[in-house]
């Protein structure tokens, strides 16, 4: 009788775990997590886009950090599930709201004050309250011989409303190359070299300052997982378990704050960056993009240096696939094609 490889038993355990949870979600997430993060981000002097970016940073700092058994790839989605809305939209009682907010560090803050902040962004159905944005004109016969795509009609080149920028493909390869720390340094260089006579400066600076918050969120996410893994490793009595947790701590101490050096770091950086994408815009068809083209430089370098076997790389890909699983939605990947 052939015995099942231990590595395959581990992957089967991960599959069962993530399917039981319906996706890579942390258990028992505070239902007022988004409310508290938005309230903390909504400071005087911040534009709407800067508040949005700061919201992501606050979400990272408030979200629970869990590392489950058997996983070598760390990271759970920041929200409880794809449909997570603001706690104030769920009809909970005032006493429960106050207790949940206090658990998130908002002791002494009146729930009505936080609710007012939420109402400034969404209506009671959860719809973003910001106006429709449209760019560009389309020809009059654009919709000829084509079915209806959206209630707004496709009469413009681009449209977006509020935070609805999912169905997107982010530049994950840039994060893997530079890390959020490297991207932050690029932004700081842009800010330092601003031309005060540039009439477009206010718009550019607004975007750059929002970008600083996003970079800070990425660096904080890796740091929190590194600290959690290191603490768990100290308490681990089993040498194999300690090694697993120390490996996570070492990788997350590096990425996604800085550029990846190995294939394992690249996969970890990619997944944490994807968590940020889903935390910012909601989990709804957020595409990874051309996964093979993004990861192949690190795979080839590690294979050439003898640091990685094909089986080890396959294990990391299986684990990433488990992390990307959602019973509700798709997280698209492109494989193959040009080059």
Task: Give your account of this protein's structure.
It is built from 11 helices and 4 strands. With 339 residues, it is mainly alpha-helical. It has a two-stranded antiparallel ribbon with strand order 1-2. The longest helix has 35 residues, at 201-235. The chain is globular, with a radius of gyration of 22 Å. It starts with 5 loop residues before the first helix and ends in a 5-residue tail after the last strand.
Key words describing this protein structure:
single chain; 339 residues; mainly alpha; two-stranded antiparallel sheet; two-stranded parallel sheet; 11 helices
Judged by helices, strands and strand pairing, the structural class is mainly alpha
Strand content: under 5%
Task: State the separation between the terminal residues, measured CA to CA.
Answer: 44 Å
Which regions are unreliable across 5 or more consecutive residues at pLDDT < 50?
Answer: 130-134, 145-152, 158-164
Whole-number radius of gyration? 22 Å
Helix percent reads 40-55%
The average pLDDT score comes to 87
Shape: globular
Query: Number of helical runs?
Result: 11
Could you give the order of strands across the largest sheet? 1-2
Task: List strands and helices in order, with pairings.
Layout: H1 6-21, H2 33-41, H3 48-62, H4 94-103, H5 111-119, E1 132-137, E2 156-161, H6 172-192, H7 201-235, H8 239-254, H9 263-281, E3 289-290, H10 291-305, H11 310-324, E4 333-334
Parallel strand pairs: 3-4
Antiparallel strand pairs: 1-2
Helix pairs in contact: 1-11, 2-3, 2-5, 3-7, 6-7, 6-9, 7-8, 7-9, 9-10, 9-11
């Amino acid at each position: 009788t052939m015995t099942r490889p231990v590595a395959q038993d581990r992957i089967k355990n991960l599959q069962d775990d993530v399917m039981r949870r319906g996706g890579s979600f942390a258990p028992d997430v505070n239902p007022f997590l988004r409310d508290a993060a938005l309230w903390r981000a909504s400071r005087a002097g911040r534009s709407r886009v800067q508040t949005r970016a700061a919201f992501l940073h606050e979400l990272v700092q408030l979200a629970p950090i869990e590392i489950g058994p058997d996983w070598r790839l760390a990271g759970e989605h920041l929200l409880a599930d794809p449909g997570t809305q603001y706690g104030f939209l769920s009809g909970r009682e005032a006493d429960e709201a106050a207790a949940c907010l206090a658990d998130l560090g908002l002791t002494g803050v009146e729930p009505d004050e936080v609710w007012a902040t939420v109402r400034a962004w969404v209506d009671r159905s959860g719809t973003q309250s910001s106006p429709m944005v449209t760019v560009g004109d389309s020809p009059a016969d654009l919709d000829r011989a084509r079915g209806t795509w959206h209630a707004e009609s496709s009469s413009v080149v681009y449209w977006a409303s509020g935070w609805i920028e999912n169905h997107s493909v982010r530049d994950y390869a840039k994060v893997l190359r530079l890390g959020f720390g490297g991207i932050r340094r690029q932004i700081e260089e842009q800010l330092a070299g601003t031309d005060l006579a540039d009439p477009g400066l206010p718009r550019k600076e607004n975007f750059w300052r929002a970008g600083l918050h996003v970079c800070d969120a990425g660096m904080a996410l890796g740091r929190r997982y590194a600290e959690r893994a290191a603490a768990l490793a100290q308490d681990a009595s089993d040498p194999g378990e300690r090694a697993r947790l120390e490996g996570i701590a070492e990788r997350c101490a590096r990425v996604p704050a800085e550029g990846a050096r190995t294939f394992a770091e690249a996969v970890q950086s990619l997944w944490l960056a994807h968590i940020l994408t889903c935390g910012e815009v909601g989990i709804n068809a957020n595409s990874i993009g051309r996964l093979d083209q993004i990861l192949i430089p690190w795979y080839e370098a590690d294979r050439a240096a003898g640091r990685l076997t094909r089986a080890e790389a396959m294990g990391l890909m299986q684990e990433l696939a488990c992390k990307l699983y959602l019973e509700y939605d798709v997280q698209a990947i492109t494989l193959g094609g040009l080059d």
